[in-house]
Structures
1.
Amino acid sequence: MPFVSQYGFLPLSAPPGKQALYNPAQCASMDAAAPSFGVSIEQLMQAAASAVARTVQRHWPQGAVLFLCGPGNNGGDALVAAQILREQGRVVSVFSLVDPSARQGTAAWAQSQWQGRCERQCPDFRRFSVVVDGLLGAGLDRDVEGETAALIQALAASKVPVCAIDVPSGLDGASGQVRGVLAPATVTVSFVRYKPGHVLYPGRTLCGKLELAEIGMPAPALQQANTWLNEPALWQAHLPQLGAQSHKYTRGHALVVGGEQMTGASRLAARAAQRAGAGLVSMAVPPSVWPVYAGALDSIMVAPLDDTLTTDERIRAWLIGPGAGLGEQTRRLTLALLATERPCVLDADAISSFAQQPQELLDALHEQCVLTPHAGEFARVFESAPDRLEAARLAARQCGAVLVLKGADTVIAAPDGRALINACAPPWLATGGSGDVLAGLVCGLLTQGMPAFEAAGAAVWLHSQAALEFGPGLIPEDLIAVLPRVWQRLLSRA
């Protein structure tokens, strides 16, 4: 299913599969390693510049082109691309942020390739059909200031189309955060692999259309990845397998804890666990509201909530949190379920109930647990970090469980440092109850024996694809209704 950029989900040009995301430090290491495998930095730069030139010709085939060139290799890419377009007959101007004679290393080689003038007084942006942004690279470690900041602000104010090289200048390629100022790009050309900053907000909306260029990076130079786009290729091999002799007990028994007031939340989660493939789903609910649940559910068994809950060895996975209610009872039940050391999903109130005793929760968690907080619930228990990816990683490592930090750019993090970034969620998922459905999907997959990290990644992807399948106007019940079609397409690809 294609991604639609106008709604904010990712317009990828790369084929589906295991798409690693490399941070700027990893990219720098790969560049440095390439010559030892027979590919020079100059060859990589020439290939990157050719990709930039092709992008400009494809999107802006007519009119004058302005290249903004910074001091480093990003500016080097721009200089070589400018020469390529000049030789193809385009009207090209180059503005250099530094004195051309001050360039060093590969950037100095790039300067020698440019056979025109380098302007030090920036011309009027509005004279050009496109401005190619080669000012700054992806590895910013401080806010942009001074002349560079003023130039970027003027570019943004001009509203002229921008083709960014690697990232729009001012964007942190590791986190997707803006470092002071930024001119949004119409198109961004990246190389080898995408970076986390391309898919994490606000970077995702500031890069425009993303295009990925192969530039001949030798395979042995590629770093070992620990961050990927959330795609089926990463977890499809772990999906539950049904055989001719499968039955409800081999598919597993899930139990969802229901609350006394917000009864709809846990019912949504239980139905989602069914749609995820759990063979049996039960609900344990306060005796006072047993008739409410029993009268609303047909194929889901409803039992009174009591102290014998954790003694049933048939239950393979638990889910607690949706509509559970804040307070001591939810804390006590959560700790009792975690003590069984069986797979367990914690959402909503099961997390927030530990706001005053976070360490008590952290000490009880184990590697078969999946936590699914939104940003507010996350902040009640875990420490903040500079960006969502790092925050999720630190929390997963701290608690020894899988952490799903929900949002438009949901991050799935494992205790060992692996992380997935989900880039296909449409904005109409932002509706009350959709998170309950997600928690139920995770529980249903855990019930069937999927490892926690892979179950979380698959659930987040299925959740997003169901929303795309239905379209605008979605309510949480619609996710459950369209999931069979999503499953059918997914399994037909296997």
Note: The radius of gyration is 26 Å.
2.
Amino acid sequence: MSTHLPTADAQDPESTARTTRLREALLAADFTADGLLELLGAPAYAALARSETVPALRATRGDGPLETLVRLFLLQRPVAPARAQAALPVADCLADGWLVQDGGELRATVDVRPYGGPEGQDWWIVSDPGCAVGGAGGIRGAGDTDRAELVLGVGGASTTLAGITVRRPVASALDLGTGSGIQALHAAQHATRVTATDLNPRALRITALTLALSGARPADLREGSLFEPVGEETYDLIVSNPPFVISPGARLTYRDGGMGGDDLCRTLVQQAAARLNDGGYCQLLANWQHVAGEEWQDRLRSWVPRGCDAWIVQREVQDITQYAELWLRDAGDHRAGDETYAARYDAWLDEFEAHKTKAVGFGWITLRKSGADTPSITVEEWPHPVEQPLGESVVGHFARQDYLRDTDDAALLAAHFRLTGGVVQEQVGPPGAEDPEHVVLRQNRGMRRAAKVDTVGAGFAGVSDGTLPAGRILDAIAQLVGEDPVLLRDRTPATIRMLIGQGFLEPVAASG
């Protein structure tokens, strides 16, 4: 097994200086997310995400520094020393192991992918050769490294988790199962102390490279499974993109957790409360089983630990054949020969049959340690497009749940509300009809929800500008529609609560 990786020792001033010079060379050549898109063009850039390299190879036939860096670090093509020297501090790269001699040429030992930070930062994510999404060919390009220890780069799951994470200044953050270190890199921007763990020691070494090359502070790197490496320590923020794939065995460390069914995700969720400080968040991606004779929502509610509020969003569902085929392709098993492929496919279906699994869900789980006696647990399906980043939407969700939990109907009718920004109204009905069949309120921001309301709900939302209390608005609506105001006050709080809970209305202080 090839275990060669570069070094970036934060305790060694000379090593730090060499890493700084490498970073400066990458910037000077515009080896950045924007520079890469400009060089390759949108079609070739998109093709890289599909592990198709021919368009990128054609776009890098020139001998400029940027073309050289793309060929070295994204396409894993050796280049002539003179060409490398024009783009990089070659002596530094050889000393620290970013480059090695390959006959008469130089080649990179790792993938280095440009990545744009949330505030326009130029960062780089390190991974094993050929294992960056948008790299040279998926895990089949990983050379002689043991496939069980491969460290993948940035993918859709990584960026999704980074986008939904609450970005508030905190004293401590934990990246559990750090992989290439992208979550630790994000956390380093707003957490005083970052701890990153992984069962794979190779991942910890690569995380150190990602942080150093991107100019971030070093993290406290610890080897081990789940919460074992951190003992009884507690954190303000826990993030995890764990090896959540439900598979027959643990062939690939980066995706297979080694527990039966969805036990790994359940265990992580249930153990998180003990490692969260009061008010802290735990946010992770997960798979869960849809089991015959059981509601999937009930299954997930049972995972939520005592003392925590939860918001669980199912983004996708696949039947067991789709799911097996997806991850068989991920491992390259479709290239292993018909008999081998069929045997491994059978093993996946046997695993699902043993657990009575009919489908697999994928989504986000957010816990907040509230200590509430009556926790708020929201489990929903939302497969529609959302607007990233969603961190502030997550904070807003739990703030609204707190408000609804603490506000009875009498206080609700005495309160003032206003329509949140970016909400539009759609009326649905046959052309020329005097009244619409129904009214839809739609958000253009955040979760981009849509809510169907009756004319009273639409009227209430439309005039809510914080000026009048809810009860006064309902009395005016009752007069307009000829309805008993007492009955309207009795039946409308449920609609108001729905509109608050989904973010269409927000409580405000009385204006004058």
Note: The chain has 19 helices and 18 strands.
3.
Amino acid sequence: MTHTRIVVAPAIDFGAVRTEFALDDDYPLPAVAESEAAADRWSAARVDRTDLPLVTIDPPGSMDLDQALHLERTVHGFVLHYAIADVAAFVTPGGALDRESRRRGQTYYLPDGSVPLHPRSLSEDAASLLPGRVRPAALWRLVLDETAEPVDVTVRRALVRSVARFDYAGVQAGVDAGVVHPSIAALPEFGRLREAAARARGAIELRLPEQDVIADGNGWRLTTQPRTEVDDWNSHVSLLTGMCAAQMMLDARIGLLRTLPAAAREAVAQLRRTAVALGVPWPEGLPVGSFLAGLDVNVPATLVLMSEAPALLRGASYVAFDGELPEQPGHGAIGAPYAHVTAPLRRLADRFVTEVCLAVCAGTDVPAPVRAALPELRETMAGSDALAGKVTRACIALTEATVLAPHVGESFDATVLRATNGRRDAEVFVPDATVIAPCTGEPKEGSRIRIRLTHADPQTRTVRFAYPA
């Protein structure tokens, strides 16, 4: 039986996912009222930097715009201005808005809409760095040398105004055509230098097929979102700022870090054994991050290796410290200490890290409510991160099962990501359905095979294939 390329699923009700994980779309009225009445608590202390032609780069349709940037090439290197939405300006410590946002932890994204960390009147309006609007911000200024390494870092409260709003695909098209907005004309050079620096640090980047659920007419479809060079370059702006924030807090001996142990030797050894079995050369002495970065994304062996690589990145956590430095301050995937600081509209930790960095840079005491909150944030963020992962997986599983339900019995081409190797099932990637799912039988890892869909149940959100077809 020939296979059919799966495109659109019928309407899907993601309300069941919201109910299962107790996600509350409605924000408590006292917190909404507080956010709508809030005014900038530091308006008198801000420097006016509305002269900076900042721009934003976000997914199409995004309204919660946390970051705006201006990158200038200089004789000696670069100057990066990075404006981050100043959420703390609108939040009264201990108030209704503060309590509710600390309960939520972060924004949860579902295909049919988000469950926001803050009321939309704040996250998508008053605090969002929308184009043409004067907004309060924490404005980072990073002076970088010829290799795009920081030589001077400051952050202060400012008024800013974005002059243009871009998305990744649009900026990439401009780069390809040689037409880039002046505010980010230096981004390609900066990005490539930061990529080289990441490899030198031993950073590890995974490039698995990233499933996403998107609306398509009256239905939904699964897709894999290709990462553009601009995605990567823009992420290096955020990563660099987070690394600078982490170092600033370590120097001051107070803050909140996002941590990850270095890859375990056994995990690296297992990945090397898989590479040998697949016939993928891995020169002695080449760090695992450089090995993964050099793989051809268009060959099945790369999918297999990338599917095993998450074993290198286990044990992510947060660590708060005040006076005594943490034993393990590093982030193994980044190859340096790192802090979440660039997405305060969507992630709770960033508001508090921003407050610490502003105080450290100004030479003032960290505000008492911020200092008191740091120890609690570790559990709050760990819990909300775990919940966000479950919500995303549930939405994808529901869509996979709904998309495939009418096609039980049909055959598909697939790539084997993991062979059985003692597990009950193999794991396969089905490009025509953009599905990663279990498969019975004993196919060879890395092989391209023909499989048959034997089960797809939207109620249980389960899918199963069989080999041979």
Note: The radius of gyration is 23 Å.
